[in-house]
Specification:
Blueprint (H helix, E strand, L loop, with lengths): L1 E4 L8 E2 L3 E2 L5 E3 L7 H9 L4 E4 L3 E2 L6 H14 L7 H29 L4 H12 L6 H7 L10 H19 L4 H12 L10 H5 L6 H20 L4 H9 L20 H16 L10 H10 L7 H11 L7 E4 L4 E6 L9 E8 L5 E5 L7 E5 L6
Antiparallel strand pairs: 1-5, 2-6, 3-4, 3-5, 7-8, 7-11, 8-9, 9-10
Helix pairs in contact: 3-5, 3-6, 4-7, 6-7, 6-11, 6-13, 7-10, 7-11, 9-10, 10-11, 11-12
Length: 381
């Protein structure tokens, strides 16, 4: 592939082949213009060059390479199906529900009995870490943005943040014992909130100065609780630092860059993505696509770029689990990524089966059926 200096790429131009940040990370497909926003973001990330087998052009023109790739995508994978998806989804839903119940009981135990045992928590987290990487995509599909009746907000946030953290940790190839530590830290990163009145962290109203100070102090409370329960220092520190930011704008100690622990950097990204895509009393959830774009902007350089890239590599720009409206008017759910064409993921059509009774899953494409926009889950009912 050829190297192109970003400063030399004409604004609004279209490359005749995909553009890469490195050998694996696709930045744009041929039909995506090199916008000012994209150039500004790359400069903020301190990227100076990109890679491509194509050339920039003033207007989008389909080349033989893109035509062949599109045709291959439509012909070879247009009706791709995944055997046993229904059973995998049911297993994922059962695991997710049981893990959520366990976490709710764990938080209740901390609140009422003021106790938690590291070995027992780590054992449950290990069950999540032991799920093969290719099967974790089913957990992403069953994660809910809202809360079911009787569901604890803190436990739900903790479980979803833990799943995302472990997926990121797996991508960056953390060894098994460190993955368990990361997952344990993610599960308990907000444990200090358990000791606060729910109206403080759930209220849609403006907080009083005293209440705001309670929120700012909760990482310290989490740290103190975990240390009192004899949790390892690495896990306790991750809970203390998960609200720290690369640019020093976080809390409680306004740490910067390398002074923040790796586990805390991962949890910060996972926690923020979950917060963006999860419902809160004062705002509706953003869809996964919009939430991913918000994180990619990394306004003010709050997050570690390497961790953000790991999130994108793992979940894709159109994250697994996202509900979408298709160009043929049907509705679907993203079930797998397409690394060659990130704008055209694998989608399961809701309510449709193949003649042999399997879920109908196909690869979206520019020439064929494409994604029009994300959908809220309520719009799929």
């Amino acid at each position: 592939m050829k190297q192109f200096m970003i400063k030399d790429i004409p604004l609004g131009s279209f490359f005749t082949a995909p553009v890469y940040l490195d050998d694996n990370f696709i930045l744009t497909a041929p039909e995506v213009a090199f916008s000012q926003e994209l150039i500004s973001t790359l400069k903020e990330w301190e990227f100076k060059e990109v890679l491509s087998r194509g050339e920039p052009r003033e207007e989008y023109t389909e080349t033989a390479e893109t035509a062949v790739a599109a045709a291959a995508g439509q012909g070879k994978q247009a009706e791709k199906t995944f055997a046993g998806d229904g059973e995998q989804i049911r297993e994922a839903e059962h695991f997710y529900t049981e893990f959520l119940k366990y976490t709710q009981n764990l938080f209740h135990q901390v609140l009422i009995k003021n106790e938690a045992r590291f070995n027992l928590v780590a054992e449950r987290v290990k069950e999540l870490c032991d799920i093969p990487r290719e099967k974790r995509r089913y957990l992403l599909r069953v994660m809910r943005s809202g809360l079911e009746e009787g569901e604890n907000y803190l436990a739900s946030h903790a479980v979803k943040s833990t799943i995302i953290s472990i997926i990121i940790g797996s991508y960056i190839k953390l060894p098994s014992h460190r993955l368990i530590e990361l997952g344990t830290a993610a599960l308990l990163h907000e444990v200090g909130m358990v000791k606060l009145p729910p109206q403080v962290y759930l209220s849609p109203r403006a907080l009083t100065p005293e209440e705001r100070q309670q929120i700012l102090n909760h990482p310290v409370l989490s740290y103190n609780l975990l240390r009192s329960f004899d949790f390892p220092l690495t896990i306790s520190v991750a809970a203390l630092e998960h609200h720290e930011r690369e640019n020093g704008s976080g809390y409680p100690r306004k740490l910067t860059g390398d002074k923040i622990s790796l586990y805390a950097k991962i949890i910060a990204v996972a926690c923020s993505y979950e917060a963006l895509t999860g419902s809160r009393p004062h705002r509706e959830a953003k869809d996964g696509y919009t939430g991913m774009l918000d994180l990619l902007k990394n306004e003010g350089k709050q997050y570690d770029d390497t961790i953000i890239k790991a999130l994108v590599f793992s979940l894709s720009i159109y994250p697994i689990g996202l509900y979408v409206l298709l160009s043929n008017g049907k509705k679907g759910q993203v079930v797998d990524v397409n690394p060659e064409f990130p704008k055209f993921p694998m989608v399961q059509v809701l309510g449709e089966l193949t003649p042999d009774g399997k879920n109908r899953i196909f690869q979206t494409s520019r020439e064929g059926i494409s994604i029009v926009r994300p959908l809220k889950k309520e719009e799929t009912l």
